[in-house]
């Protein structure tokens, strides 16, 4: 068997592409587009999760307050004092998808025309994700002074069905979301203020001296 000599000039040369070659430019652009597509695709689930599921510091539940009952506004004495008690129903709705909501504690003040009638502490409360519930707060006052003007005004508004009180509640909460950056999960205070009607005229009888 004879071996045939191979001319060096006849050997295959490596394929080289010039920057001016259309195929080179096409492959480079395709490679770049593919890399960007993969990068965006890998980040998309994270972006969707952060935008739609991770709450920020302002994503707190909705709180509404109602007066379920009260007493003690009809026990005015010669000293112009009252010792009222209010039974408040607080409705909370947590609309977060993945995390429960908890507030640690709070304070509540019920006032009439700038005078605090009753006050008290708000107990800690936790609510499961995507749920709603009620809890009760019972603030009370002791020997609250009412001037003649306020007593007469309250009596008039009561008989005309326009008597209102202001309920101011502050709720303090610790970070509810430990897996997000600290700027989004720092503790805070939620302030709630509502003006509420006193309700049925049969519940009060104010003695004006």
UniProtKB/TrEMBL annotation:
Residue spans crossing the bilayer: 33-54
Protein's name in the database: Late embryogenesis abundant protein LEA-2 subgroup domain-containing protein
Keyword terms of this UniProt record: Membrane, Transmembrane, Transmembrane helix
Protein's organism: Urochloa decumbens
